[in-house]
Amino acid sequence: MPWFVYIARCADDTLYCGITNDLVARLAAHNAGKGARYTRTRTPIAILATRRCMTKGRALRVEYQVKQLTRAQKEQLVVAWATRPVAISRSSSAARRCRAAPRS
Description:
Layout: E1 3-9, E2 15-20, H1 23-31, H2 37-40, E3 46-53, H3 56-67, H4 71-83, H5 93-96, E4 99-100
């Protein structure tokens, strides 16, 4: 079962990064105030970009890498993820093993 790393924009215009194996359920949980503590008071949120990873471990590593980025770098990453599959950094083996999520 694939895991997804996602970047979401909160109602206060902040960015949140997380992982899940069910994007629809996770978005519903966030918007119901039952998601991460950070998003509970910042609803509604909208998922801006996703990456599919084959394992939870890889998704966790990519999530950690995204969380280390500045806001400007995260905004650039959102654009990059939306246009083509791009690794967070060329030296990141975890990021290279993740793929862009299929568009629906």
